[in-house]
TrEMBL record, chain A:
GO cellular component terms given for this protein: cytosol; eukaryotic translation initiation factor 2B complex
Listed transmembrane segments: none
Keyword Mitochondrion listed: no
Chief location: cytoplasm
Protein name in the entry: Translation initiation factor eIF2B subunit beta
Subcellular location: Cytoplasm, Cytosol
GO molecular function, one term: translation initiation factor activity
Lineage: Eukaryota, Fungi, Dikarya, Ascomycota, Pezizomycotina
InterPro entries: eIF2B_beta_subunit (IPR051855), IF-2B-related (IPR000649), IF_2B-like_C (IPR042529), NagB/RpiA_transferase-like (IPR037171)
Family, per entry: Belongs to the eIF-2B alpha/beta/delta subunits family.
Quaternary state and interactors: Component of the translation initiation factor 2B (eIF2B) complex which is a heterodecamer of two sets of five different subunits: alpha, beta, gamma, delta and epsilon. Subunits alpha, beta and delta comprise a regulatory subcomplex and subunits epsilon and gamma comprise a catalytic subcomplex. Within the complex, the hexameric regulatory complex resides at the center, with the two heterodimeric catalytic subcomplexes bound on opposite sides.
Compositional bias of kind Polar residues: 112-127, 195-215
Keyword terms of this UniProt record: Cytoplasm, Initiation factor, Protein biosynthesis, Transferase
Region (Disordered): 110-150, 190-215
Automatic annotation (TrEMBL), chain B:
Biased composition (Polar residues): 16-25
Organism: Sporormia fimetaria CBS 119925
Main location (coarse class): cytoplasm
Renumbered residue ranges of the record's region Disordered: 1-131
Pfam families registered for this protein in UniProt: IF-2B
Domain of life: Eukaryota
Record's compositionally biased regions (Low complexity): 1-15
Protein name, as recorded: Translation initiation factor eIF2B subunit delta
GO cellular component: cytosol
Record's compositionally biased regions (Basic and acidic residues): 48-59, 80-96, 113-124
Lineage: Eukaryota, Fungi, Dikarya, Ascomycota, Pezizomycotina
Molecular functions per Gene Ontology: translation initiation factor activity
InterPro entries, per database record: IF-2B-related, IF_2B-like_C, NagB/RpiA_transferase-like
Length: 472, 504
């Protein structure tokens, strides 16, 4: 097939993955950066796949056994990737996940170490171990601050303090990101209750404890990884492979929820071409009969939308596993394609809106293909439930302080072709590619972990990212 | 309105063009319906019997249909306009002859004809089209003058084609064009002996014209209002008036009507509307409205410094014309498609909308997409101002955009360019579909290949494209309606409508 031959040659995800096997790490990073910059790898899933594959190789090639250096290395690559294409938030998400993974691996090893050698110490330290981080749970307002006190965090700090000398403890017991006014005051009040002498107020307030902790923490990581005989690289790589599995399976896991949300004879509205939504609907189509109204998302996604509707895949040549992968219409579901302007007119008869997403933000809002905002708003006006389908990997610890920063603008030529020179010359044509949908317009998120209210997303963020990694 | 009148010579040449194609179509139709009827009588189980009966019925129906146009010229034509339209919904072959307002590329694909003929056959009676819009698909749109009765005036024939091809589009433009054409129709009218003009003109001379226009595109609210008004003044003509004088009076009345209800009204609305535009404003408008355009230009002439955002949508892209005109007059214009509407609305400070009609319950019936824009404006607390002449007010009420609406052919949704973009999908199509369509020659001209894309969609069992033309905007999204009578809240529409119709 001539077309297939062409697509293999064009740089993209598949060509990158292929070249990754043979090229050394540093050129691969450069290659990926250039692909990101040229938008030859775009959209969340391809970016996530490419990033995990690259990081797997980075970790694989990593020479030293020093965990701190590995963290620094991954973080450095992460910084370069995210600055190459800040709007592909998923790249940053994956880097953060990997960083968290390294910390966890180090931590688990230390845990088992200390458990084996001085288990009595650990058990005796249990009560005071809980204290400080309980207090910070209450006092922190931001979910990200909150994340600092999540169990993952506790395990990374506390065992370290167990294994090292007493003198090093005070700075450690403070939490790096939560060292702000309200927090420390709250800590003051709690001190009389803490059973351990080691948790002195001076420790909490010590100037060295603020800000200087991350490097300190890294230093410690380094010490530990040197001292113990663990297979850091191997375990991290296993973890990354698990991450890859998660990416692979997230759609299926999401789709497993489908029957809980779609009843028979429903009219469902969706937009753009999304593999996750498609699989979700297909899963429901196996058991139930319903109708789908597909908004075509002109001018940037309509080709993909038609492709999805007709063939079940976004674009020719995209690597999709072929087993029983068919379009909805072949599954006996009636599909109606409508232009974007019809959304309000149709909405009064729609039972449910299912949106695909580009990125989900920690406040429960989302960035999705342009048109999503008006669809969600129209649904709200008609009291139609809006369900957002997204893998956890799209969930980002980023808060949308500057919305415009998240929105990418596309080629104006797809709105008005440049052949119409007179028009293009005189009129400002704009083509925003993404919409920000505020959290209050969304009723439900369905991720590979299940269904969540938008207001609960911050907890899932806290579960998946380490507080130290939020700013790369 | 020079576009509105196509010479009759041109029109008749068109009709010559199209007759052979219609014959062709009949032949194929008859052929396809006949075989099952003949093949049936060998063994007769219950189910078979039923099938046979159905086939016969279908054949009969097809025959009746194909017989239609042949009978017509003989007479009794105007009685069954509905039936004739059914079989004249074939190839829009005459399209190329007309100046098309949009997508000339599509019009110049002659091969479309064949593809349609084939694809229509399997579709017949197979499924109810269009989700819950089935009730709107009662009458396919007339794209040709085949089957029009001989009573239809050539100028009206031309006008009808301009309607169905969107060459004349927009409710005011359509109404004005219709009235101007009716002037010619009235002038060419002579009362038959034994009849009075007041009794005969409406029922025998005007109604075939109106029926034909309706078959080309459903009448707009303003057209309905104008027709009602016209019938009213015709019936009031004193039978004693000599025919020539009565006709002159009517023509004069029509001119007055257009001047009063459209030209002057527009001026008044533009004057009032432009006072609402202040320095530094960003006016957002959707699609294209002539009154909005006049208002903006009036404000521009006054020297107010403001800019305009035009939001538009496929497939008509009416806003493009508006944006071009405004930019030409030196207005700063930004252009968005409706997918970017939520971004456009953030930059705007006021929203001006045109109307197709104002309903008596205060709702706005306008180009599809208007409701989305006003909803977003409402969410941003921007004032939404509707500019609307009182001819467009109607007694009718509407709650949603589904009960009363106009459907348009869905293939308009896919422009030539979009079809080309879809071509590479071909090898990935489901096997069932490709086998159904037969292996069309791959190396055809681009035109055949793009029309093939439409076949994919029509051939797919569960897939439909849907296009409606209007939507209804809830009254609570609208802050003000500016008419020639002044500015009012949407709730006052029925009051003004009553007083304006009572006055005549």
């Amino acid at each position: 097939m001539a077309q297939a031959a062409v697509t293999v040659v064009t740089p993209g995800l598949s060509s990158f993955l292929k070249s990754l096997k043979t090229t050394p790490v540093e050129p691969s990073v450069e290659h990926f950066i250039s692909l990101l910059k040229r938008r030859q790898i775009r959209n969340s899933r391809p970016c996530a796949i490419a990033t995990t594959a690259l990081l797997l190789r980075v970790v694989g090639e990593f020479k030293s056994r020093d965990a701190a250096k590995l963290v620094e290395r991954v973080r450095d690559i992460g910084r370069r990737l995210t600055s190459a294409q800040p709007r592909e938030v998923v790249v940053g998400n994956i880097v953060r996940r990997v960083l968290g993974l390294i910390r966890e691996v180090v931590n688990d090893n230390i845990d088992s170490d200390t458990n084996a050698t001085n288990s009595d110490l650990v058990s005796s330290s249990q009560p005071h171990q809980d204290r400080p981080h309980l207090s910070s749970t209450i006092s922190s307002f931001s979910p990200l601050k909150h994340a600092a006190t999540e169990p993952t965090n506790a395990t990374i700090h506390e065992p370290l303090s167990e294994s090292t000398e007493f003198s090093k403890r005070p700075p450690l017991s403070t939490h790096p990101t939560s060292a702000h006014m309200g927090h420390s005051l709250f800590g003051l009040f709690l001190h009389p209750d803490t059973p351990s002498v080691s948790n002195t107020p001076t420790g909490q307030h010590s100037p060295t404890g603020k800000g200087s902790l991350t490097p300190l923490n890294l230093e410690r990581l380094a010490d530990i990884s040197k001292s113990t005989t663990m297979d850091l690289k191997g375990e991290v790589m296993d973890g990354i492979r698990e991450l890859q599995d998660e990416l692979d399976q997230s759609d299926e896991l999401i789709a497993a929820n489908a029957l809980d949300h779609i009843h028979s004879n429903e009219i469902i509205l969706t937009h753009t071409a999304s593999t996750s939504v498609q699989k979700f609907l297909l899963a429901a189509a196996r058991k139930r009969k319903f109708a789908v109204v597909h908004v075509e998302t002109h001018p940037h996604d309509h080709t993909d939308t038609y492709g999805m509707v007709l063939t079940g895949r976004k674009r020719h040549g995209e690597a999709v596993e072929d087993e029983d992968w068919k379009p909805l219409i072949a599954a006996g579901i009636e599909v109606y394609v409508i232009p974007d302007s019809h959304v309000f007119a149709i909405m009064s008869r729609v039972n449910k809106v299912i949106l695909a997403t580009h990125t989900v933000l920690a406040n429960g809002g989302l960035v999705a293909a342009a048109g999503a905002a008006m669809i969600a708003r129209a649904a709200k006006e008609h009291r139609t439930p809006v369900v957002v389908v997204s893998g956890v990997y799209k969930l980002s610890p980023v808060y949308p302080f500057d919305l415009d920063e998240l929105i990418e603008y596309g080629d104006a030529g797809s709105v008005v072709p440049f052949e119409e020179g007179g028009f293009v010359e005189k009129v400002d044509v704009e083509n925003p590619l993404y919409d920000y949908v505020p959290a209050d317009l969304v009723d439900l998120y369905i991720t590979n972990l299940g269904g969540h209210a938008p207001s609960f997303l911050y907890r899932i963020v806290a579960d998946h990212y380490h507080a130290d990694d939020v700013t790369l | 309105m020079s576009v509105a009148t196509l010479s009759s010579a041109q029109a008749s040449s068109l009709s010559k063009d199209t007759t052979p194609t219609s014959n062709e179509a009949e032949v194929t139709k008859g052929g396809s319906a006949a075989p099952p009827a003949e093949a049936a009588p060998k063994k007769l189980s219950g189910a078979e019997l039923k099938k046979q009966k159905q086939a016969e019925k279908q054949a009969k129906r097809a025959q009746a249909k194909s017989a239609g146009p042949n009978d017509n010229p003989k007479g009794g034509a105007a009685k069954e306009p509905q039936k004739q339209q059914k079989d004249t919904k074939q190839p829009p072959k005459e399209k190329p002859a007309l100046p098309l307002r949009r997508r000339p590329s599509q019009a110049t694909t002659p091969t479309i004809k064949e593809t349609k003929k084939e694809s229509k056959e399997p579709k017949q009676g197979k499924r109810q089209p269009g989700l819950f819009f089935g009730h709107l698909y009662t009458q396919p749109r007339q794209h040709s003058i085949v089957g029009a009765t001989k009573d239809v005036h050539p100028a009206v024939l031309a006008l009808g084609l301009q309607y169905s091809s969107y060459t004349i589009c927009g409710s005011t433009a359509r109404m004005v064009a219709m009235l101007l054409t009716f002037k010619a129709v009235i002038e060419s009218y002579t009362t038959p002996p034994g009849n009075s003009l007041a009794r005969h003109l409406t029922s025998h001379h005007l109604s075939p014209q109106i029926d034909y226009l309706r078959s080309c595109r459903p009448l707009s609210i303003s057209m309905g209002n104008a027709i009602r008004w016209l019938k009213d003044i015709i019936i009031k003509i004193d039978p004693a008036t000599p025919e020539e004088e009565a006709k002159q009076d009517l023509v004069q009345d029509i001119d007055d009507f257009i001047r009063e209800r459209v030209t002057m009204a527009d001026q008044l609305i533009a004057t009032t509307g432009s006072t609402k535009i202040e320095n530094g404003d960003v006016i957002l408008t959707y699609a294209s409205s002539s009154v909005v355009e006049k208002t903006i230009l009036r404000a521009q002439k006054k020297g107010i410094s403001f800019s305009v955002i035009v939001v538009d949508s496929k497939p008509l892209f009416e806003g493009k014309q508006l944006a071009t005109k405004l930019a030409h007059h030196g207005v700063r214009v930004k252009y968005f498609l409706i997918t970017g509407a939520s971004h456009a609305i953030k930059q705007a400070s006021k929203v001006f909308l045109g109307a197709h009609a104002m309903m008596s319950n205060g709702r706005l019936y306008s180009r599809v997409g208007t409701a989305v824009v006003s909803m977003l404006a409402r969410a941003q607390s921007l004032p939404v101002i509707v500019l609307c002449e009182s001819v467009k007010f109607t007694d009718r009420v509407a709650l949603d955009s589904i009960v009363g609406n106009e459907v348009a052919p869905a293939e308009e949704l896919l422009s030539e360019k979009e079809r080309v973009a879809l071509l590479p999908l071909k090898p990935h199509l489901p096997a069932r579909l490709t086998s159904k369509l037969g292996d069309a020659d791959d190396e055809g001209k681009p035109a055949t290949r793009t029309s093939e894309v439409l076949k994919w969609i029509e051939g797919s069992d569960n897939l439909q494209m849907l296009q409606i033309l209007y939507d209804v905007t809830p009254a609570e999204y609208i802050n003000m309606v500016i008419t020639e009578y002044g500015s009012l809240p949407p709730t006052s529409v029925p009051v003004v409508h009553r007083s304006s119709t009572d006055r005549q």
